[in-house]
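INFO  loader      accepted 1 record
INFO  loader      residues=124
INFO  predictor   begin
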Amino acid sequence: QVQLAETGGGSVQAGGSLRLSCTASGSIFRINDMAWYRRTPGNQRELVASITRDGSANYVDSVMGRFTISRDNTKKTLYLQMNNLEPEDTAVYYCKGSISSAQTVGPMLTRDYWGRGTQVTVSS
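INFO  predictor   done
INFO  writer      dumping tokens
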């Protein structure tokens, strides 16, 4: 089965940096659009950044100029470089990928997959 796994979370002081990675594994034919989301207690899931297969990126206003989303299709890995971190960035970060999965029988399936999340904590 297809899986996504995030790494790179941790605790930093305000103004610090972290780089998150998300690697896909399993029976994968193609990874389409990917994105990073984050969630804090009492808040809805928030889309942080998204990227198409060819590298076109979009960001939520609060992280523009500080975060950079990128991907390496040969490594099946998504990245989020986070600079100038603020306490408001504290959250569990999840990666999401639209993935077309090869099947031994029947047509190819395309659906969204989610990682389990990685904690980012920014102290003031």
